[in-house]
Each structure stands twice: as structure tokens, then as C-alpha cells.
Amino acid sequence: MIRATILPLIICLSTSLLPAAPPDNVVFRSDVSLVRVDARVVDGGNRAITGLHADDFVLREAGQPQVIRAFGSEDLPVDVLFLLDVSASMAPHVQRIADASGHALTVFGKDDRMGIMVFDRSTRTTLPFSTNREDVHQAFERLLREEQFKGGTDVTRAMLDAANYIGREGRQNARRAIVILTDDQTEMSRDDVAVMRALTRADAVLCALIAPDALHTGRASAADVDPFGGLLGPNAQRLFGNQIPRVLRMISGPRTSSAGTSEIAQDSGGDSMSVNDASALRLTLARIRQRYALFFSLPDGVAPGQERSIEVDLTPAARLRYPNVQVAYRRAYTTPGNASSPTADARRPNSPSVAPPAPNEL
């Protein structure tokens, strides 16, 4: 017979499925398995609400209420992967992030890790996960010297690669987040569903820092190109009307389009900010640290490899104390033990394959 004990909250809980580690004053068998859900709670002004407790939340799995078996907040470590767009026009925005990193990274604790991946039409890991903030700052400075900032871009491919990397290399005892810096303009097709599935498998949230489309590659306008000495200037609307974008595509060749980065970030439980905000990086990292972690028991009879739905809200009593709050979280999780390749449905034609996460990290 297993003897029931009272254990302190162990912060080294898995990001998806793990042996139970109960919080203070909670008693249950030590062989219970727990699933973690991360949630961010903000007020009407998008300011984080801190100081909530487990009994302030309501959690449902596949529509069924679940007991919150363990609970954590800023005491849990995080793994953050910076995903930086180094295509043409992005150099000043990467410089802005590099300059802000010294102050912004002070929100992290000694057990938090950071890594850097860059992308244009392909991805490259320039810094594996490290707890040393100076390593991160130096890696920013190094890539500013070494990257040419002149390639095209495939944002969807980059998000898929980043999700697979953090799913493979992220610690089981840490919450996982990808912070992407991009102008959201991609030459390749957009695939929100594949990216969300990859983020769900990796148990990672996406936070976006959006830069202006400095080259205007995603917005066809009469001011973009004027090869006929004014034909597409003041007379453009009269001559071409709503055909101006089509005419410009014929003249200047293929254009880019939105990769849906902001929408994907919101659906993953993260958020999106303009990189032009001076405090954007620090605020983004602080919000990652301020997320709540709610743990519930994996329901009996759930088959491995399923994508299951989750709902998280505040109790009516908590909503009376905090009216107009919003609870952001990823609305699905993948049960462990999927026999199929976790990246099979995330690959696209003519895209390089990505190594799947190790089975014990799904």
C-alpha cells in the first residue's frame, strides 16, 4: 500500500506529463500523473494580475471539470527561445532588441534559460539554451556582425522549426516560450494549423514582437513602384482603380503576405506587441514569468497521441474581485506516447525535415 504523504510543491514538474508533485497542504498518492496548463490573466488595460491562487481558477478538460492538483506561478523556471528574423530590412529591429536585452533579461531568475535561433528562408541556432545572460547579450552582438540581413523569409517554417527545437531541447521542469521578432511578411504559404499543432506538441507559448514592414513587400500601393514616369502616381486610381495591386505584382514580381504571427501568438496563449515600444521586450519577458501553472490529473482511459481540449477561467468570486479580466491560454494539449512522427503533419513540400522531439519529451 502506498503511504499518503504531504509534500511541498516541486517545481521540477514536466511540461506535459510527469509523476505527481503536490503543492503545500495537498495530499494524494505519489503515482498520480499530472498535466500542466499555463495561463496568463490580465485586466482591461492588458496588465498582468498577480497574486491569484488555485481556488481562483476553474479548469475543464474535454468539457469536464477537473480538480487543480498543483499550482505554481513565478517560482517555476522558464526556457525562452528568441526567434529572430534576419531577412532584409530587419537589422535595425534586431539591433533594438540587442540594445534592450541587457535590461530586459534582468526579469529572469538564475534557473531560467535562453536560446537564440535566427531565420530567413532557413533557420539556424546561434545560441543553445544558457542560463548566462551575458552569453545571450554577446550572441546578439555576434549575429549583428555576422548576419547579412539580405535574404528572403519563410516565417511559418521558422515557427515550426522553433517549436520542434524547444520541444526537443526544453527542460521537462520548465515552462516553454518562443519570442519571435519579425515583420510578419513571408514569401511562403501560411499554415496556422500546422504551427499551432507544433506548439501544442512542444507545450510552448508564442509571443510576438512585430516590426514594421519597412520594405512594403506585403502591401501593394501606387507609391511602391513608378516605372512609367508618374503613370502609377496621381493618375493611378483613375486609370487602374482596385487593380493597382495586380498591376504592381505584374511589374515587380512576387510579393509577400502575412504569416499570421500575431493571430498564432494569441491562439497559443501568448500576445503580440510592436517592437517600436521601448519596453516591448522587457514587458514580454515579464509576462512570460507572470504566467500561472495549473496541474490536473490525466483522465483515465485517454489514449496516447490525442489532442484534447482545455478550458480555463476564473471562478465567479474571483471575477467579482477582478472584473473585465481576460484569461489567455492554449486551448489544447497532446497526450504523450504518440506513435506517429510529431512533425509529419507540420512539414510542407520543399521544406527541410525537422528532427522530432525525443519520445520522453512529448
pLDDT < 50 runs, ≥5 residues: 1-32, 219-231, 338-362
Helix count, per DSSP?
9
CATH topological fold name of the largest domain: Rossmann fold
Proportion of beta-strand residues? 15-25%
**What is the arithmetic mean of pLDDT?**
79
Q: How does CATH name the architecture of the largest domain?
A: 3-Layer(aba) Sandwich
Q: Count the beta strands.
A: 17
Identify the overall geometry.
globular
Key terms:
362 residues, alpha+beta, Rossmann fold, 3 domains, 5-stranded antiparallel sheet, 9 helices, 17 strands, disordered C terminus
What does this structure look like?
- It is a single chain.
- This protein is of the alpha+beta class and 362 residues long.
- The chain has three domains: 18-74 and 295-334, no CATH class; 78-218 and 255-289, von Willebrand factor, type A domain (Rossmann fold), CATH 3.40.50; 219-254, no CATH class.
- Helix content is 25%, strand content 25%.
- The protein has nine helices and 17 strands.
- It has helices spanning 91-104, 133-146, 155-169, 192-202, 236-240, 244-252, 261-267, 280-289, 316-321; strands at residues 18-19, 33-42, 57-61, 64-66, 70-72, 78-85, 113-119, 123-130, 175-182, 185-186, 204-210, 257-258, 272-274, 292-297, 307-314, 326-329, 332-334.
- The strands form four sheets. A six-stranded mixed β-sheet has the order 8-7-6-9-11-13, sandwiched between helices. Strands 1, 2, 5, 14 and 16 form a five-stranded antiparallel β-sheet that branches. The chain has a four-stranded antiparallel β-sheet with strand order 4-3-15-17.
- Helix 1 packs antiparallel against helix 2 (133-146), helix 1 crosses helix 8 and helix 3 (155-169) runs parallel beside helix 4.
- The two termini are 31 Å apart.
- The model is unreliable at 1-32, 219-231 and 338-362 (pLDDT under 50).
